[in-house]
Write a structure and sequence with these properties.
402 residues, mainly alpha, Receptor-associated Protein, three-stranded antiparallel sheet, 14 helices
């Protein structure tokens, strides 16, 4: 998709400028003509302004950007700022060139008579179905201001949760990467020089030393092959995860990993309950809300459970029927949802469940960070122990014999 800047004359005879995304200039012109505009100027936008970094991975639109858009739009509308002016202000204030272009296109669409939800829907890679349907429900009910405020609150909570989890996982990921890199360098370039001395001594070597000699010799001669195989493995895993079966297997594995499985299970509970409560608050019907949540929860195992729940609800059964058959759903969640259905306070119960399990996620993250340090110390101790027993002890025996 390319971005085209345009200047048009509206059906009322007013001049209007903006930007639109389309595969070609012809498609952009056709899209503008369909809105009743007379195209005066249409040109492809440059990649970026002077001094502006235009690398795609640096200009990508993040979850934080969407949170800021939601909150800013909510504040401006509550302050009685006209919708089009509010969107244009957001476009001017954002530092992300890609988001600026998107918001300019949204402003042009709304100014041309389109609904805000329809304008957002033109950018499915930026705005999720959850976001769009919440906006649409607010427009339908005439409570766009309230829905935007509620949506901004929930998105901020979800963003905080995601940031917290990423922050907790960065440390162990860095430690594992550092250990792997150091181990690779040691086995490829340092250990072979030490073991060469032992091989030339012609003294009996323990089994650990002989294994280390074989492994380090392979790394020393074929370290390039190890890197190639590792790269191929990573690529194959990424391709496999992108397939439906591979993604399901990966998501199932995540839920079964000790410690981390329990953490991710709680994360999905919070995301499910919070998203469903938000959609119900916005006036979306239960089945429609479940269909949207299925694409938001972020795990194929949970997605299947949600679709099974939709089937059960359509057949007149309880929302907890499918969840009750799964071992990945906490019993407390099922009991609370059942109470919410019986009392007609499902939304309130969903919010309470989300708050409860969000606190449990906080505790699990704190415990995880605490456990990481002793685990790292144990791994380092094992590594040092193996090196001592395999290299230093034979060297000490050799020097003693001399």
């Amino acid at each position: 998709m390319a971005t085209f800047k345009y200047r048009v004359r509206t059906p009322e005879g007013q001049m209007q400028a903006g930007a639109v995304e389309a595969p070609t200039a012809e498609d952009a012109s056709a899209a503008l003509t369909e809105r009743g505009f007379e195209v005066l100027v249409l040109e492809k936008a440059r990649a970026g302004k002077t001094g502006e970094i235009s690398l795609p991975f640096l200009n990508r639109i993040t979850a934080k950007d969407i949170v800021i858009v939601s909150r800013t739009l909510s504040v401006m509308i509550s302050a009685s700022v006209p919708l089009v002016d509010a969107i244009k202000n957001i476009a001017q204030q954002t530092e992300n060139p890609k988001l600026r272009t998107v918001m300019q296109d949204v402003a042009s669409e709304v100014e041309g008579g389109a609904r805000l939800s329809d304008a957002f829907e033109r950018h499915p890679k930026v705005f999720s179905g959850f976001f769009i349907n919440m906006i649409r429900s607010g427009e339908t009910s005439g409570q766009l201001e309230q829905v935007l405020e509620y949506l901004a609150d929930q998105q901020e909570k979800d963003y905080d949760l995601t940031s917290k989890i990423k922050g907790a996982l960065i440390y162990p990921a860095f430690i594992l990467f550092a250990l792997g890199a150091v181990g690779f360098i040691m086995m490829s370039f340092v250990v072979p020089k030490l073991t060469q001395i032992l091989q030339e001594s012609n003294v009996p070597l323990p089994i650990t030393t002989r294994i280390l000699i074989v492994v380090s010799g392979f790394f020393a001669n074929y370290w390039w092959l190890v890197l190639i195989l590792l790269g191929i493995l990573i690529v194959l895993l990424r391709i496999a995860i992108q397939t439906p079966g591979g993604r399901l297997a990966f998501d199932t594995f995540i839920l079964r990993v000790p410690v981390f499985g329990r953490l991710f299970e709680r994360i999905y509970v919070v995301r499910f309950c919070r998203s469903l409560a938000t959609l119900i608050h916005g006036g979306v019907d239960q089945v429609g809300a479940l269909e949207i949540v299925a694409g938001v929860v972020g795990n194929q195992v949970w997605k299947r459970m949600v679709f099974e729940t939709i089937k059960e609800v359509n057949e007149g059964n309880s929302i907890t029927t499918a969840f009750g058959r799964s071992k990945h759903v906490p019993t407390m969640m099922n009991q609370m949802l059942a109470v919410g259905e019986e009392t007609g306070k499902l939304q309130e119960v969903l919010q309470r469940v989300a708050v409860f399990f969000n606190r449990e996620v906080d505790n699990l993250v704190a415990n995880l960070v605490t456990l990481i340090e002793p685990i790292v110390m144990i791994l380092l101790g094992l590594g040092v122990g193996v090196m001592v027993s395999a290299i230093l002890l034979p060297l000490y025996q050799l020097s003693s014999a001399i």
